[in-house]
Design brief:
12 strands; six-stranded antiparallel beta sheet; about 140 residues
Amino acid sequence: MTVENVIVSDAYAGKGGSYTYNSGTDSRSVNSYVNPLQADPVKFIIKKGDTYSVAAIAKDGSGSPVNLTGYTIVAKIRDAAGNVIATPTVSVTSAAAGEYTMTVNDTSGWPVTTLFSDVTYTAPGPVVESTETFQIIVQEAI
């Protein structure tokens, strides 16, 4: 089993809705089709000082939710030099449905730049798998 897809809700520039983060590509498009060879990496946009919160669903290669019972889920947010900026709190909201939330309440100390993150899943056994790296664009609040 591999964890290949993460469904992300309410995380793109405050526009609401949801989109699929799939192996580092962004499925948002006008015609609902993205050529994975040309797609941009997933990018979250956050204003410095806002709460970073991402609700996600882990799915396997066939698109079925991964039962996260017994899994450990860890995410790190790093700058371009690899320095850890934050370690989000991960809360599994429905293990059977593969649902979890990553949160950082205080982003006031984050630099205004592009940060990088991924999610690492450790299954019982242990089997370790990670998502593709995604970007978090931090903007100054106006």
